[in-house]
């Protein structure tokens, strides 16, 4: 929801799908046509059942999803965990902003990543 609000703040019209956990995301990807794959996946580091590391590994092992940029959006992340996520193929690890300016900065960064993906298709 924070990302939705931030996108509205920068007037970026993006369809944002939200999932309660990584299993929901994976089910969605399995059910849609490749042309409907997202231009960006944003994972919270601490999701129920499967954490960002597990989901990222699954996504990057599947040739169908490998080209989708994945960003981990988190409150706190140790440097070891960040390096692990990046080595698994995360495009970036971004810390959650606690003030409005920081949230807007994150939205702009996510928009840029999503637009790069679309340009490369």
Superfamily at the CATH H level? Response regulator
| CATH hierarchy class name | Alpha Beta
Radius of gyration: 14 Å
Assembly state (oligomeric): single chain
Query: DSSP strand (E) fraction?
Result: 5-15%
* CATH fold node name: Rossmann fold
- Residue share in helix: 40-55%
Broad shape = globular
What is the total tally of β strands? Answer: 3
Uncertain runs with pLDDT below 50, 5 residues or more? none
Number of DSSP helical runs: 5
Describe this structure in words.
With 121 residues, the protein is mainly α. The chain has a single domain (2-119), classed as Response regulator (Rossmann fold), CATH 3.40.50.2300. It is 48% helix and 11% strand. The longest helix is centred in the last third of the chain and has 20 residues, at 100-119. The radius of gyration is 14 Å and the shape is globular.
């Amino acid at each position: 929801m924070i990302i939705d609000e931030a996108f509205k703040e920068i007037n970026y019209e993006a369809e944002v799908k939200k999932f309660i956990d990584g299993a929901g995301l994976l089910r969605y990807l399995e059910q849609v046509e490749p042309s409907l794959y997202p231009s960006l996946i944003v994972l919270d580091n601490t999701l129920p059942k499967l954490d960002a590391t597990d989901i990222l590994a699954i996504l990057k092992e599947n040739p169908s999803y490998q080209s989708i940029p994945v960003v981990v959006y988190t409150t706190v992340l140790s440097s070891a965990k960040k390096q692990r996520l990046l080595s698994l193929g995360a495009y970036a690890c971004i810390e959650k902003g606690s003030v409005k300016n920081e949230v807007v900065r994150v939205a702009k960064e996510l928009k840029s990543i999503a637009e790069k993906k679309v340009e490369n298709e």
